[in-house]
Amino acid sequence: MSFSLESIGMEKEARYEAIFTTMNDAGEMNAAPIGVKCINDYDIAARIFDGSKTLENIRQTKMFVVNITQNPQIFADSLYDNLDNLKFVKDDDIAYLKNADAYFICLVKSIDELDAEGDHVNEGAKSYIVVAENIKITINKKGARALNRGLYSFLESLIDYSRADLVDEAKKEEYKNRFLENERVIQRVAEKDVKESMVVLRQKMIEKGLDI
Ligand SMILES: Cc1cc2nc3c(=O)[nH]c(=O)nc-3n(C[C@H](O)[C@H](O)[C@H](O)COP(=O)(O)O)c2cc1C
User: Fold this and answer.
1) CA-based, 20 to 30 A from 110: which of 65, 180, 186, 197?
2) Architecture of 5-139 per CATH?
3) How confident is the model at residue 2 (pLDDT cuts 50, 70, 90)?
4) What secondary structure letter does DSSP report for 42?
5) CB 62 within 8 A of CB 74
6) How far from each other are the two terminal CA atoms of the chain, in whole angstroms?
7) Pocket of ligand 1 (CB under 6 A)
């Protein structure tokens, strides 16, 4: 058993994609993909939009479970609809995913409304920042690591770099826009080494004639 988020590859200040499992007061289980920011080895934060079952359940019970998985279908199925009850394990007052690579139980420290201004997607939408302390991590699969999409964004831009000499101006413009979007994602979510690699890649892209 471990208590440190580092044990599942979570780095301070980076953001990870996970499946939150929650229960309401009546014991009904819910799963949804939610991003989680690592504050330090023990504390995390999540920005959750008003209206979701996840937020409502967290408000009711003041606890939730963060499930770590790399399985794309679990992300999709828990977004399209709730997961089948058979996919959960109910353990007293918590529910977690049967097939998670790892999971950790969180106790809520605070729930505060977030200033909606400046949100790149949902300007004006009400959202809350939930800060919680992880009290126990269970690792089911050796080497389990929380999923950070920064690396994938970096690889997308690196592939564009490798093709930048071969393409016409219209395609270069496409690469430029994709670079800027990947850079935005990386600045927001990525781990330190990916952020550093992206700074170098920006320079390399400019050397290949991308007007960024
Ligand atoms: C990878 C991924 C990450 C997501 N992260 C968040 C998030 O951080 N906060 C949020 O409010 N919604 C997030 N969503 C959207 C929620 O999963 C979505 O609103 C879901 O329908 C909420 O389900 P619920 O009502 O069962 O809680 C994310 C979706 C995906 C696919």
Assistant:
1) 186
2) Roll (2.30)
3) low
4) S
5) no
6) 47
7) 17, 30, 32-35, 46-49, 52-54, 75, 79
* Atom 23 (ligand 1) nearest CA: 32
Band of residue 3 on the pLDDT scale cut at 50, 70, 90: confident
Instruction: Say which residue the tokens 């989680």 belong to.
Output: 36
Nearest-atom index, ligand 1, CA of 48: 11
Alpha carbon of residue 91 to chain centroid: 25
What residues pair up with 43 in beta bridges, in sequence order? 133
144-147, Cβ contacts within 8 angstroms, sequence gap of 24 or more: 144/8, 144/9, 144/68, 144/101, 144/102, 145/8, 145/9, 145/68, 145/101, 146/5, 146/8, 146/9, 146/10, 146/16, 146/17, 146/18, 146/36, 146/68, 147/16, 147/17, 147/18, 147/68, 147/69, 147/70
CA-to-CA distance for 163 and 147, rounded, in angstroms? 27
Q: Are 178 and 212 in contact (CB under 8 A)?
A: no
- % helix, strand, coil for the chain, step of 5: 35, 30, 35
Pick the residue whose CA is nearest to atom 17 on ligand 1: 33
Q: Is the pLDDT of residue 51 over 90?
A: yes
Stretch 114-130: mean pLDDT: 78
